[in-house]
Structures are given as C-alpha cells and as structure tokens.
Amino acid sequence: MTIKVGCCGWAVKGGMDAYFKTFKLIEIQSTFYKLPNPSTAEGWRTKAPEDFEFTLKSWQAVTHPTSSPTWRKAGVKIPPDRADRYGHLKPTEENFEAWSKTMEIARALRAKIIVVQLPPSFDASEENIKNMQEFFSTIDRGGVLITVEFRHNSWTADKVAEVCRRLDLIHTVDPFKAETVTKDKDVIYYRLHGLGKKMYVYNYSDEELLKLYENWVKPYSLKGVEVYVLFNNTAMAEDAKRFQEIIEATHA
After folding, report:
1. What is the spatial distance between Cα 246 and Cα 252, in angstroms, rounded to a whole number?
2. Full DSSP string of 44-60
3. What SS3 state is found at 212?
4. Which of helix, strand or coil describes residue 39?
5. pLDDT for 191-210, tens place per residue?
6. Which of 48, 77, 114, 116 lies 20 to 30 angstroms, CA to CA, from 188?
7. How many angstroms separate the Cα of 216 from the Cα of each of 53, 124, 183, 212?
8. What letters, b where the CB count within 10 A reaches 16 and e where it falls short, cover 28-58?
9. Side-chain-facing half-sphere of 252: CA atoms under 13 Å
10. How far apart are CA 161 and CA 149, in angstroms?
C-alpha cells in the first residue's frame, strides 16, 4: 500500500528542515511562477532526505498566456512581439524552450511527476486539443510522468479520457469535486483545494478526511496504485498531518 501525502509548498512552520521532518513529499509551487536556478533546485535535493520526493508544477510560460494575472508575480519580462507565442500549450519554439527549462529543474530535483495546470481559459476547443496533441507528442519527457489539471467546464469526462489516453497523461483532480478518468494508471494524483465558498480558504474536518481515505485513496492503494494526496488549502499542513494520522491509525 503506497499513499504519499504532502503539501503544495513549504507549509510547515519552521521552514524546509521542519517540513522534511513532517512529510516525505512536496509539490513545488514556485516553479509555476518563476523557475529557480538549477543549482538552487539541486541544493533542495541535497538537503532533503534520500527517501523524500519532489513533484513540481510546470512553468506557467507553457500553459498561461502572458495576459494572465499570474504573470504579475513572475517578474519575467517577455518581449511584446513574442508574447502571443507563450501559453495554451502552443507548439511554439518559446513553449518548447519553457518546457525544457522546467525539465531541467525536474532533473535537479529527481522528480518523477510534473503537474501541468491548465488555465481556466483553456477550453476544449479544436484548436486547443490540436495544440495539446502536437505539444505533448513533441516534448522530451525524460521518463517523467505528466499529470494535467483541466479547469474549464467544457472538458467533459469523455473528452479528458480521450486526450489522456492518446497522449499518455494522468488526470489530476480534487476528489471531492471530480472523479479521475485515468483509473487504469499506476499513479493517482489528487490536489485538494478546499470546500469553502472562497477557493483555498478551508479546514477539512476529520469526517471529510476519513471520507477522502475510505472513498478515494484506500480503494486504489489496495490495488497497488501509488496515490499522491497534495493539500493546497490555507490549513494544508495541519490537514495533511491529520490525514497521515488517519492512515497510520487504520494500519496500526
């Protein structure tokens, strides 16, 4: 039974060292906004215990148009004449270069999973599906698994299933809100964003965490599937710790 629990970011009070003592998994969020120097990523890997696992979000240059508000946090200057060549998985030289730089960080971290979070504007249009096909068929994956989080409501389960099957992608979901369509994969990847009215602002109850385990984690884990559970809410460290305790209690 392999269940991996962590947070989307260094959420434990006390920083990196405290985090390493609490969890064995992290999804690096900062790579979405701006990629670190490879030497910085190598430093994180060196500092981490040998059995610690890093996953990371792909740089937003690959997925988000430069008009996206998320670029304001990036501090990266894009020449105006090239701005329309970034994002939405367009098969452009700029996006392929952005992916190569993301892969460089993945290698430094020895990460085996990269999370591609699509923007809410990325609908299931013919053009976007065509771009996905060309982009994911061209890039060097370097043995890394790619999980994709679809966020436009035009992406029906059937469309997601077809794209993921054809392009060898893992469907990433918040299990409280949607069901993954890639149940046949060796990896299930969950990102939990909270259930409150305001995105991310939430504390999960013990009952909700037990439901998460019993309904959406345990069944896959018993089949030998690796289940990743990443909390991405305001109380992520506390909730992830309690979720670990629930797992430990059921196996005591």
Report:
1. 10
2. HHHHS-TT-EEEEEPPH
3. helix
4. helix
5. 999 998 888 889 999 999 99
6. 48
7. 22, 26, 11, 5
8. bbebbbebbeeeebbebbeebeeebbbbbbb
9. 7
10. 12
Distance separating alpha carbons of residues 201 and 181, to the nearest angstrom = 27
Distance from C-alpha of 137 to C-alpha of 131, rounded to nearest angstrom = 10
Looking at residue 251, what is its pLDDT? 73
- In residues, how long is the chain? 252
Q: Is 63 exposed, middle or buried (0-12, 13-18, 19+ CB in 10 A)?
A: buried
Quick check: 169 and 185 in contact, CB under 8 A?
no
Q: What is the pLDDT of residue 6?
A: 98
Q: Contact at 8 Å (CB) between 45 and 133?
A: no
Tokens of 105: 């960080």
Give the number of other Cβ atoms within 10 Å of residue 236's Cβ.
24
Question: Cα(48)–Cα(147) distance, rounded to whole angstroms?
Answer: 23
Closest CA to 38 of 95, 99, 107: 107
Spatial separation of the C-alpha atoms in residues 102 and 86, rounded to whole Å: 14
Four-CA torsion 199, 191, 58, 55, nearest 10 degrees: 140
29-52 per-position pLDDT tens digit = 999 999 999 999 999 999 999 999
For residue 22, what is the DSSP state?
Answer: H
Is the distance from CB of 196 to CB of 202 less than 8 angstroms?
yes
DSSP code of 35?
P
Query: Rounded CA gap, 246 and 60, in Å?
Result: 34
